[in-house]
Amino acid sequence: MRTESNIVQVAMNRHGVAGRRGFLRAVGLGAAGLAAGGVAPLGLTDLLTLRADELRKRQTACILLWMAGGPSQLETFDPKPEAANGGGTKAIETAAPGISIAQGWEKTAGVMKDVALIRSMTNKEGNHQRADYQLHTGYTPTATLKHPNIGSIAAAELGDSGFDLPHMVAIGGPTAGAGFLGASYEPFVVPNVQKPPDNAQARVPVDRFQRRLGLLNRLEKAGFEQAGGADRVRDHRALYSQTSKMVLSPRMKAFDLDQEAAPIRDAYGRTPFGQGCLLARRLVEAGVTFVEVRCGGWDTHTENNQRVAALAGQVDPAFATLINDLKSRGMLDRTLVVWMGEFGRTPKVNPNAGRDHFPRVFNVALAGGGVKGGQVIGGSSGDGTEVKDRPVTVPDLMSSICRSLGVDAAKENQTSIGRPMKIVDGGKAVGELFG
């Protein structure tokens, strides 16, 4: 006789993801089997809940390495040394036969068998704010609705509500918010990895701390809530509940990088970004669902080559060490690592030896989370001005991230005004990523 767990497992592929039709078909067969065996059939909601519980048990996670400003594809993972627009960048061989990347990324080259490159990303948004929003949410910004960060989506879909750390953490600065999902899924921002989060320790005995929270709740209920502020009180309570659990959590030690051995800290690099990647690994290991690590400075309108070389000196060892570290701990298969920015840079070098905004063609790197490494998907033209083959859009990329994490990209969430909104509107997961 099939158990509830069996039904859920039948509905999932080897990445823990069910096709919409396949899952519903498995639900129907499973429910019928249970009924035939004399057990009351499960409803669809029950089975969806079981599937979500299975994913939570796997502790599927994502680490987004965000290159704020828009990294040049020509000086990172799509070099064109023979092209007139190549900018003098040399290509180096990698551990994956036939794949070359730009000089300055030697450590990443060494882990290329675990990395998949998409060289045919294409988009229309060339404005920093709009593109940043779109690459985080899958939607172009509007004046009437704030869409949720993909990290907040992952927190809502996969995070255990009883967990005592935030399920969405942004390291190195603020990022796109939770939008209509509400305060419970807002990113927890860690501006400085060199010290623990501010106000993250209880400064009074625990029982006194709890009494203060109880008094706050009574004051809000007697005043603001009854005067028409119920929605704001609800969000405020959710935030305080989450924060108080965090303050009292023994898992807060995950933020203490001094617990790591000096050699591993050195391998990541003693830079804010390098130590941010180490913190990301520690947080995922502690059970956090989504961590974004931000590296600014990629808006290279001037002196592109020199500035990218300096940035690569920080990002290259951190990126490669993160992959190796996750792999050595048996965490890479369940942790998706995504390297990207909001767009690429123009193939033509400008008069200031820089490259300008260029969303038409750019690249993204992915590793772990069921992604098949050692491959290149799509390509750009010889001069880098066009997608040559296999164009990949932002919705395609977002659908791929959802597939890796086990999130149904077609699921509809309700906005604050009751409007259904898909997690990803359109697009199709890039099947080649998963072999």
Automatic annotation (TrEMBL):
InterPro entries: Alkaline_phosphatase_core_sf, DUF1501, TAT_signal. PROSITE patterns: TAT. Pfam families: DUF1501 (PF07394). PANTHER family: BLL7424 PROTEIN, DUF1501 DOMAIN-CONTAINING PROTEIN. This is DUF1501 domain-containing protein. The lineage of its organism: Bacteria, Pseudomonadati, Planctomycetota, Planctomycetia, Isosphaerales.
